[in-house]
Specification:
It contains ten helices and eleven strands. The protein is an alpha/beta fold and about 270 residues long. The chain has one domain: Rossmann fold, CATH 3.40.50. Strands 1, 2, 5, 6, 7, 8, 9, 10 and 11 form a nine-stranded mixed sheet that branches. A two-stranded antiparallel sheet has the order 3-4. Helix 1 crosses helix 10 and helix 3 packs parallel to helix 4. The longest helix has 18 residues. The two termini are about 25 Å apart. The relative contact order is 0.17.
Length: about 270
Amino acid sequence: MADCNNCPSRNNCNSKDICTIKNNPNNHVKQVIGVMSGKGGVGKSTVASLIAKELNNKGYKVGVMDADITGPSIPRLFKIENKRAVAEDEQIIPVETEEGIKVISLNLLIDDEETPTIWRGPIVSGIVQQFWTDVIWGELDYLIIDMPPGTGDVALTVMQSIPITGLVIVSIPQDMVSMIVAKAVNMAKKLNKPVLGVVENMSYVLCPDCGKKIEIFDGESTTEFLEEYDLTLLGELPMVKDIANIPKEGSKNLSKQVKDTFEEIANKIIDKTS
């Protein structure tokens, strides 16, 4: 039988007899939101970190799991320096940011973040599972998971071994109407994971003189794609330096437009998970 008592999906699950998800009895996580992309390089980790920060700003208890084991960037996006997760009674205590967000990442468990992860798939998948079963998340309203890019083995492990209650897909305009995003959406549907919506990163540029929004790519195709797959557009992000500079400067210097967009994204996620 499944371990349902502390499972975020317990009220919307029809697979109790065949479920193999293991839950930590010390954790009480209400919503688990996976942030995924069809491929790397589209700003998935940045979007995941900013969603977490905005939910935290709204007063929710938030944690972030860096499940992108071979490319862990969450610690840098949160400006976590000289801190390490610690083991206690065979369990792991995550690092807590200045804002009070709990974070776990492979880079918080090793001495040198530049050490490459030369592991085969089963080992990487095992680490991801331990981030759910062995980390003391405690009481959380939202656990945001920065998933590995693509639809491969580790992404499959995340969806099958962690009770995800919703997915946010991050894309860029030239990929939005392609098979790359379609594969991610279809993977979620096959595994019965609800897609909360899509965040389109690098959607447009702003004229530095007049502030006019300049859309480089065809917006009509995007609209048709969203309608075809019955997807919600959670938000469109501009191509600006302040987003790209988050690992160096943090998120305090974000423009009002970017902050407003993430408030809108967070509000839509809250509405869809309430």
